[in-house]
């Protein structure tokens, strides 16, 4: 997923100052670039529908200037297809991905890196719809091109395909594909590069799901060592990896070690992001649920309330994470016989879920 920078959107026309170019004086290309900036602003604010309309306006300007099959258009149409996918408009997204693909293949040939990128995106679209056979076939198209080019993104394609196998519990295929991705990144980047750790972490998570805890612990510790060496002991990636290691210990019954690693994870993330950062809420809830399982209800309640307080700010206050945090605290209070305290939390969680459902793409079809 591409991260987009939040920039305040200027309403209306451009402010005209001495010597400034007005909208009427702009060339079509300058108009399109200005609309591109507006698109980024919309997307950065989570306004996907507005961002899509803006991106389409910019595309229309370029089509009038360049023609409908100019090579530059393939990347623009690909971006539009990705927004459509995020909006759940899968039919339109698929059509636009294939239009971008046709332009890129005509301009660059079938074995070009840009063509591989579009195939990869189509595969992820199919994966989002649980169309696993189609996703596998298109992932393999992308992989074949990237193998031929020995492209750095080959490992990402392999990682994506492995994740799809793991979701289907095709663990042998997933393991072999993850290991291919690891080998490719190790060859290009070295064995201690953070991008190697990202794939190793995914393999470690799969091992945990299979209850292969010793292997998962070994990989988690290797990832942790890579991040600490490359990024520093206080980097957020270190905090996230400590949380994952804690999960392995918890699932394998090593509860004291799990608690220690959860606490280390929270400490690292607090130091870099602040004690009230929304991004610490998951770690707080993980530790809270561990303590709840041990009957340490008072300590667990404090942590759940901290997680809720961290999330209780836009846009997180209306998120699925907030709904889950509210329900977790409510269930704990019910265990303690505090039904009257739990009820408003459950009511708020239900309101959030209802709002999310009403705004989901499926509800508008």
Overview of this structure, please?
- The protein has helices at 28-44, 48-66, 72-86, 90-108, 113-128, 132-149, 154-167, 171-189, 194-209, 213-231, 236-251, 255-273, 281-293, 297-311, 320-335, 339-359.
- It is globular, with a radius of gyration of 24 Å.
- The longest helix has 21 residues, at 339-359.
- The protein has 365 residues and is mostly helical.
- Among the domains are: 216-274, no CATH class; 283-359, Tetratricopeptide repeat domain (Serine Threonine Protein Phosphatase 5, Tetratricopeptide repeat, Alpha Horseshoe), CATH 1.25.40.10.
- Helix 2 (48-66) packs antiparallel against helix 3 (72-86), helix 6 (132-149) packs antiparallel against helix 7 (154-167) and helix 8 (171-189) runs antiparallel to helix 9.
Give the overall silhouette: globular
CATH class of the domain at 283-359: Mainly Alpha
Mean pLDDT rating: 91
Distance between the termini: 24 Å
Classify the helix fraction into a percent range: over 70%
Largest sheet: none
CATH superfamily of the domain at 283-359: Tetratricopeptide repeat domain
What is the CATH topology classification name of the domain at 283-359?
Answer: Serine Threonine Protein Phosphatase 5, Tetratricopeptide repeat
The helix-strand sequence is HHHHHHHHHHHHHHHH
Number of strands: 0
**What CATH architecture of the domain at 283-359 do you see?**
Alpha Horseshoe
Low-confidence segments: 1-23
Q: How many whole angstroms does the radius of gyration measure?
A: 24 Å
Number of discrete helical segments = 16
């Amino acid at each position: 997923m591409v991260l987009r920078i939040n920039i305040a959107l200027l309403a209306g026309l451009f402010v005209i100052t001495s010597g400034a170019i007005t909208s009427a004086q702009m060339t079509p290309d300058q108009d399109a670039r200005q609309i591109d900036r507006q698109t980024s602003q919309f997307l950065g604010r989570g306004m996907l529908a507005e961002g899509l309309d803006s991106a389409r306006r910019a595309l229309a300007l370029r089509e009038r200037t360049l023609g409908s099959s100019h090579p530059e258009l393939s990347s623009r149409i690909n971006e539009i297809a990705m927004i459509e996918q995020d909006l759940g408009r899968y039919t339109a997204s698929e059509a636009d991905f294939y239009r971008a693909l046709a332009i890129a293949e005509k301009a660059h040939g079938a074995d070009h890196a840009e063509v591989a990128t579009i195939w990869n995106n189509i595969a992820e679209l199919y994966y989002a719809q649980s169309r696993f056979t189609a996703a596998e076939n298109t992932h393999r198209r992308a992989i074949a091109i990237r193998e031929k080019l020995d492209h750095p993104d080959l490992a990402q394609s392999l990682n994506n395909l492995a994740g799809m196998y793991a979701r289907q519990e095709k663990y042998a295929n997933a393991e072999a594909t993850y290991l291919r991705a690891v080998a490719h990144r190790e060859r290009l980047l070295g064995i201690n590069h953070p991008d190697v750790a990202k794939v190793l972490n995914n393999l470690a998570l799969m091992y945990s799901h299979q209850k292969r805890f010793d292997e998962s612990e070994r990989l988690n510790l290797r990832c942790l060592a890579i991040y600490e060496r490359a990024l520093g002991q206080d980097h957020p990636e270190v905090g996230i990896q400590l949380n994952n290691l804690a999960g392995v210990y918890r699932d394998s019954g090593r509860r004291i070690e799990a608690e220690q690693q959860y606490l280390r994870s929270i400490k690292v993330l607090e130091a870099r992001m602040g004690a009230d950062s929304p991004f610490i809420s998951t770690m707080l809830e993980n530790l809270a649920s561990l303590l709840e399982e041990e009957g340490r209800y008072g300590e667990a309640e404090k942590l759940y309330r901290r997680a809720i307080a961290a999330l209780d700010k836009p846009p997180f206050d209306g998120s699925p994470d907030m709904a889950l945090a509210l329900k977790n605290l409510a269930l704990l209070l019910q265990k303690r016989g505090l039904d009257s305290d739990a009820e408003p939390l459950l009511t708020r969680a239900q309101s959030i879920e209802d709002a999310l459902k009403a705004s989901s793409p499926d509800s508008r079809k």
